[in-house]
Amino acid sequence: MKRSSSVKLALMSASAVVITACGQAKEEAAVYESIAQCEEAGVVDAANCTAQFEAAQAVHQETAPRYAREEDCFTDFGYQGCQRFRTSGGSSVFLPFMLGYLLAPRGGSGVFTQPLYRSADDPNTFRTASNKRIGSVGPNGVTQVAKSTARQPSARTRTVSRGGFGARAARGAAG
Description:
The chain has helices at 3-14, 35-41, 46-63, 70-77; strands at 18-21, 24-32, 82-86, 92-96, 100-105, 111-119, 122-127, 142-146, 158-160, 170-172. The model is unreliable at 8-21 and 166-175 (pLDDT under 50). The protein has a domain at 3-63 and 100-154. With 175 residues, the chain is an alpha+beta fold. Helix 2 packs antiparallel against helix 3. The termini are far apart. It contains 4 helices and 10 strands, in the order αββαααββββββββ. The longest helix is centred in the first third of the chain and has 18 residues, at 46-63.
């Protein structure tokens, strides 16, 4: 069985794939902090846990919130919650650390994976690169998320000029 098929089937087997709550369509997804946690949950196999983690890391480099100043990144993600990143253009920006990853089935097109973060003002909740909150996660990592939350985030071409993870003004800068 193809890797993406086994992940999709495992996620769908835990409960219904699409539900409607509060008027917004939701879908089942899995959230893990590490490859080891994914493997221990047993929802997907070890090879998929690793492959999806690596895919999330690649997406992280393209979509993570970017900050011109380390202090601004710390404001949103906490002291030592950020790392320096050199862009393809050679400039340096600061990105938050990827602290987890989300796996969401995509019908016949496999599984969508994206990086997750924790903000300084809400350290117990995962958020996407678009600052969308991930709800409570069950012991096996399975959760329900709005379909819009599980969409591929856009690549970042702007750098946040001051604190506010997704909610404050941004200015054109290194991308």
